[in-house]
Amino acid sequence: MTLLQTIEREPEVGERVGWTRAAIAELFDRPLLDLLFEAQQVHREHHPANQVQLSTLLSIKTGGCPEDCGYCSQSVKADSGLKATKLMDVQAVLQSAAQAKDHGSTRFCMGAAWRNPKDKDIPALAAMVKGVREMGLETCMTLGMLTPSQAEALAEAGLDYYNHNIDTAPENYGNVISTRTFEDRLDTLDNVRAAGINVCSGGIVGMGETRETRVGFIHALASMPEPPESVPINALVPVKGTVLGDMLADTPLARIDDIEFVRTVAAARITMPRSMVRLSAGRESMSESTQALCFMAGANSIFTGDKLLTAPNAGDDRDGAMLAKLGLTPMEMA
Asked: Mean pLDDT across the stretch 5-11?
């Protein structure tokens, strides 16, 4: 049975019922304080209280991606002015990882704007993973679709996590991307799981979708045979020249309502209690109060630094001041 069939099927008679769409919709409909209370209880059952993992995301190959993801400035279909680059030199990546560690990050993520890596790129990617791991950092990569052999090679190098977001609910996927299918996404996650790498998969909200779509998005993640160990929740950053950026930048839909975003984080925490819920893109435009509510809702990881791939990010100093104000401490390396 494929991941997509697992997500869409109805439970059989006598089978333990997991999270249905109706049950997740009920979470979204709860009074906010009740929802946050339960989310924080679930969080403390499975994770250290008042601790946040600091992560750094580096673009190791920027732009020139042939996919047409409507939110992405790195697509060749976008008129964002972004210039394509070649894959970074291994030593340059390791130098960036060392700097990230010096700034307090315990997780180093490497992203390349590809539909899929070529086999000739795997040795360099494996060297990056090995080098970063030798520093004692947790490693993650996002490179597009992977074949089974590519996933196995990265696993052999010691890759801890592979990120491949489902982006949105299955029924909304075609409205965001046309160059690959939702099933293509799940095939890569199958390959990653089979290779023994932890799965990092989440998506983007604020793309003009309905609450029903957000319910479907959380349901798709929580209904996997094994929910992702890492779940990034992104708020759309509208970029001029992208399909969604041009469509939504000048409308109220451009930025999801803060409370609705917090509800989405809480639903992720409650339905996937053991996962790291990562407060990801879009934080630059969020107030400290909104971010505090996200931490209350169970988010326990943020990306630090001035840039998140190609989008602006809060920066180490602002993040440090915010965490101190909230009484939160950076999670230490295991």
From this structure: 46
